[in-house]
């Protein structure tokens, strides 16, 4: 074999080896990319503009979504979710359908303000789970937490047109979703905002619930009603700091379904305002 033939063979073998290596590198890169994409996102943020947004948008500050519903649908399994609501707007909170009138919360869900102007308003939708009866679209706490930071919450005050009363299922913003065997577990924080009470409670169990609720630099507006919490079958740890209630009401007016033990102490409410509540029971 001549020298030229040997060199040609060596070059061909080297080129073949290079091709194989390049192919393997491409396979490795593709496998790594697929593995990275399979890792669940630990946190997500969405911006919502109820006037100028679009539910077909990315959900960034420059291209905001239009609804909380769309943001919830895109992030319900993400461990830490922040939904920024445009200032000076009312944002309807809606679940998937009237027949599935809730989102389950097993993660940390934060509602925050963005933009300039007054606090955005979080307003639960009034639906019709049972014909002829209204209910609100609610959040089912399943080990998760919800944080309203500089976002006002306004509870509904009127029935859906064509209905005659409030149905028991979905009769509060935080409610049980999965039958009598289910329990509601989780925490809710109100910070730098106003909670306006309405025709139905903010917290209710129906069967079993364990709530942890915190108020910091917040106001509870009790002009329309005192429907804050009905604790029949439930327990609550309530922490209040630098917060107030309008209409000369106290926490004793806002919490019902309380139980006292034989010593006169509340057995289903633990709070730094517990003495005020106990005095009114």
Q: How many separate domains make up the residues? A: 2
Q: What is the H/E order?
A: HEHEEEEEEEEEEEEEEEEEEEHEEH
What kind of assembly state do the chains in view correspond to?
A: single chain
Q: Report how far apart the termini are.
A: 107 Å
Q: Structural class from helices and strands?
A: alpha/beta
**Helical element count?**
4
Helix proportion: 10-25%
Low-confidence stretches: none
| Overall pLDDT confidence | 89
The tally of beta strands, per DSSP, is 22
Shape: elongated
**What profile does the largest beta sheet have?**
9 strands, parallel
CATH class of the largest domain: Mainly Beta
Radius of gyration: 27 Å
CATH topology of the largest domain: Pectate Lyase C-like
Percentage of β-strand residues: 35-45%
CATH architecture of the largest domain: 3 Solenoid
What does this protein structure show overall?
This protein is of the alpha/beta class. It has two domains: 1-39; 43-279, Pectate Lyase C-like, CATH 2.160.20.130. Helix content is 19%, strand content 37%. It has helices spanning 3-38, 68-75, 251-254, 274-279, and strands at residues 43-48, 80-86, 90-93, 102-105, 108-114, 121-124, 126-130, 133-136, 138-149, 152-154, 165-166, 172-174, 184-191, 194-196, 201-204, 209-216, 219-221, 229-230, 234-241, 244-245, 255-256, 269-271. Strands 1, 2, 4, 5, 9, 13, 16, 19 and 22 form a nine-stranded parallel sheet that branches. It has a six-stranded parallel sheet with strand order 3-6-10-14-17-20, with no helix packed on it. The longest helix has 36 residues, at 3-38. It is elongated and about 110 Å long. The mean pLDDT is 89.
